[in-house]
Amino acid sequence: MGNRPRLPRPLAACALGLTLAAVFNAPRLTGEATSASAQSPATSAPVQGTTNNWETLFDGKVLGDWQPTKFSRGGAVTVENGQIVLAPGGSLTGITWAGAPLPTTAYELELQAMRVEGSDFFAGITFPVGDAFCSLILGGWGGTTVGLSSINGRDASENDTTQSIAFESGRWYRVRLRVTPGTIQAWLDEKPIVDQPLAGATLSVRVEVEASQPLGIASYRTRAALKDIRLRKLPGT
Fold first, then answer.
1. Which residues in the chain belong to E strands, given as ranges?
2. Are 227 and 58 within 8 A, CB to CB?
3. Residues 167 and 161 sit within 8 Å (Cβ to Cβ)
4. Is the dihedral of CA 110, 12, 91, 168 positive or negative?
5. Distance (Å, rounded) from C-alpha 179 to C-alpha 98?
């Protein structure tokens, strides 16, 4: 996912993407967030009928229903100072939900993530969308690429959700994902970054992060920290 040769097909055919990912030397933008799509911006207003009934998925003390993802050559996963710390490994390090089934549509997922050190993605969030799965990549392909992997077989570096954000190490970023029957939306510190219609879109994840399903968060050769992970259903969507 850093600057290194592309993997052979079929690995490159799937997409984290962050896959959640080793083909991350695709061309990338730098500087301020710049969208490569002509999508209309997502609204940060709550869906009508949304409640504040968040379910906490990490208590800040133990992994609980999370388990270290079974990545080859993954780094250590520890709980320190109220945070889940993903140590850099030979490739991906992450956590996967192993608790009770969670909603697959009409829900919001929120968490805080930090790149502690490293230069690639510090949060590759793989999540369910109905019967399919997709990944939101933050800081891939050398550190700045943001997008969904994959849409119609194209990963986060090459589809209409692709954009570039200059992330700061040592800073917490609040991430919010909303999945409804019609869209995937995402915000970074309440700034819209993704508004992907689902009509006509085929969703998938890169082969490298299939182990993150049904819900997982991973980093790539980067030390990352996670906290305040929670989820809520969206009634009436």
1. 34-35, 55-56, 66-68, 77-80, 83-86, 92-97, 107-117, 123-129, 132-140, 145-149, 163-164, 172-179, 183-188, 191-197, 216-220, 223-233
2. yes
3. no
4. negative
5. 20
One DSSP character per residue, 84-143 reads EEE---SSEEEEEE-SS---SSSEEEEEEEEEEE-SS-SEEEEEEETTEEEEEEEEETTT
Alpha-carbon gap, residue 60 to 48, rounded angstroms:
30
3-class DSSP state of 211: helix
Lookup result for tokens 């906290």: 227
> What single DSSP character describes residue 199?
T
3-state secondary structure of 207: helix
**pLDDT tens by residue, 176-186:** 999 999 999 99
Its pTM stands at 0.79
- The rounded distance, in Å, linking the Cα atoms of 63 and 4 is 33
Give residue-wise pLDDT tens across range 127-166. 999 999 999 999 999 899 999 999 999 999 999 999 999 9
* Residue in 44, 25, 26, 28 with CA at minimum distance from that of residue 36: 28
Contact 56, 230 (CB under 8 A): yes
> What pLDDT score was predicted for residue 237?
55
